[in-house]
Amino acid sequence: MTSTQSHLVNGVDAERLAATVSAIESQPGLGRFQFRATNRSISGGLNRSQIGTFHGAGAEHRVDTAPFVVDNDEPPVLLSDDRAPNPVEYVLQALLGCMTTSTLYKAAAQGIEIDSIRSEIEGDLDLRGMLELDPDTRAGFQAIRARLCIKTKGDRQALRALHRSSPVFDTIARPVPIEVTVEFED
Amino acid sequence: MTSTQSHLVNGVDAERLAATVSAIESQPGLGRFQFRATNRSISGGLNRSQIGTFHGAGAEHRVDTAPFVVDNDEPPVLLSDDRAPNPVEYVLQALLGCMTTSTLYKAAAQGIEIDSIRSEIEGDLDLRGMLELDPDTRAGFQAIRARLCIKTKGDRQALRALHRSSPVFDTIARPVPIEVTVEFED
């Protein structure tokens, strides 16, 4: 991921990044994004999401392109056929991906070149929570541990905490209000 | 998703589900799972995860099968090429998938047949948080709204809150401790 053009740092256009930051500073509403997905059940643990349009920087995006399709399933030990990762695995991989991108973008903004980032993650989850067999056990992850390995000749100290600005990190580390409406049809 | 065999409810083997619950009740350690992923950066917003083995019910799983590969990218307005959903979109779709599966499984355990679940979700995120332009704006989702539409002839009241036992719902709604180790190589 060394720069191939003068304005690319870590594969990120550092000039456009600086311009984006300036634009949001002068017009805060441009920072407001809304991301979306839809899903439909197929059978048992298998269901299918579509990820299409989103709003951001004052406009709608992906309006004329086909949505991404993402399948969720559960493995045999969780009573399905393992045709895709399960939802909690998607959350773990999203956390790695988001910490990686946040680190690369923030480093690019500071002009620090990163050759690569490799990472791994594990999350502990006790089914007694979801099954409501123990009131003291939560349904979700009890703890998540990740390791990032950053290959760089740049300033290590400046890179050490950049992952903490990751939107997925913050979404998991701190509570998010979720409003769910349940409707029925015959 | 009507039963095609007598023991399948919502595509879930209700007898195996009951046996699983009993086994965890009598041997709580069987409920402990650990899910995992790895990731490597490619360029800019593009990075690639692998989702392979996990531990659960006292054993390692997916030991002899190839890992799932999941790409993350960012759209052009976020300075990349939109070759895949971005990490926060994966989190939203995982929440829909997990609420759907939790509802179907819990309904199956109660013998309530569901024909299908369709759902949609949106999440508000302000880039000023991630960019640290405003100390009062968080990096992650500020609010998430979802709508589940359950097609069933069964007891609606019994189905109304089953999504709340979803592990991804709990992971996002309540804080999870995340420990991140950052290492460097030249």
Word description of this protein:
Two copies of one chain form a homodimer. With 186 residues, the first copy, chain A, is of the alpha+beta class. Helix content of chain A is 27%, strand content 33%. Chain A is built from five helices and ten strands, in the order ββαβββββαβαβααβ. The relative contact order of chain A is 0.13. The model of chain A has no long low-confidence stretch (mean pLDDT 96). Chains A and B meet through strand 2, helix 1, strand 3, strand 4 and strand 7 of A and strand 2, helix 1, strand 3, strand 4 and strand 7 of B. Strand 8 of chain A pairs antiparallel with strand 3 of chain B, so a sheet runs across the interface.
Quick structural gist:
The structure is a homodimer of 186-residue chains. The first copy, chain A, is α+β, with helices and mostly antiparallel strands.
Question: What oligomeric state is this?
Answer: homodimer
- CATH classification class of the largest domain in chain A: Alpha Beta
**Which structural class do the helices and strands of chain A define?**
alpha+beta
Q: How many helix segments of chain A? A: 5
- For the record, the CATH architecture of the largest domain in chain A stands as 2-Layer Sandwich
Mean pLDDT of chain A: 96
**Which topology of the largest domain in chain A does CATH recognise?**
GMP Synthetase, Chain A, domain 3
Number of domains of chain A: 2
